[in-house]
Structures are given as C-alpha cells and as structure tokens.
Design a protein that fits this description.
Layout (H helix, E strand, L loop, with lengths): L1 H6 L9 H12 L12 E6 L10 H10 L3 E6 L6 H10 L1
Parallel strand pairs: 1-2
Length: about 90
C-alpha cells in the first residue's frame, strides 16, 4: 500500500477540505449510522492548503465536533500549512 501511495502524483491543484468534511458528516455519518460502540472518526488526508469555502471551515469542523465525530488529520506534502493543522486540532 505504501508503494502505491508513493507512486501517486501530486498535481498541486485545488483542495476542497470544507466540502470533503461536509460530505463525510452528511453522507458517511448520517442519521442511519447505527454502530453505537464504534468510534466515529474522519481521516482527513490533505496537502494542507484548503482552497474552497475556506471561510466556512471553522463552522464545518464545529458541526463535526458537535456530532461526536473526531478528525484525524494527515498532511502529505511539504506544503502543509501548519496553522490549518493547528486550527483543526484546537477546534476538535
């Protein structure tokens, strides 16, 4: 698996962090999610540079937290913006 990830090309294009988190909250962890003894965790793999709906990121993370879902963030490039990682960690 690690070899396959190493072969992935980084295109340096847009990153819709807010939209991805919203889809996870609404479609993966929707109201039909019925596993009460399983931790609810979103694994967020990011280049650390959100480019869409950045001003809504704080609110989306707060909604996720209020739903009892945790976010595990993983930065995958040297372009990860440390402040975004810290922001996600503090809000969570």
């Amino acid at each position: 698996m690690l070899a396959a990830v190493d072969r992935l090309r980084y295109l340096g294009e847009n990153t819709n962090t807010t939209g991805g988190l919203k889809v996870a909250r609404l479609e993966v962890f929707d109201s039909t999610y019925q596993r009460p003894y399983v931790d609810r965790i979103i694994i967020l793999i990011t280049d650390g540079v959100p480019t869409y709906d950045v001003e809504q990121l704080d609110d989306e993370v707060a909604r996720i937290k209020a739903s009892g879902i945790r976010i595990l963030g993983l930065g995958v490039t040297n372009k990860v913006i440390l402040i975004i990682v810290i922001l996600l960690a503090v809000i969570i």
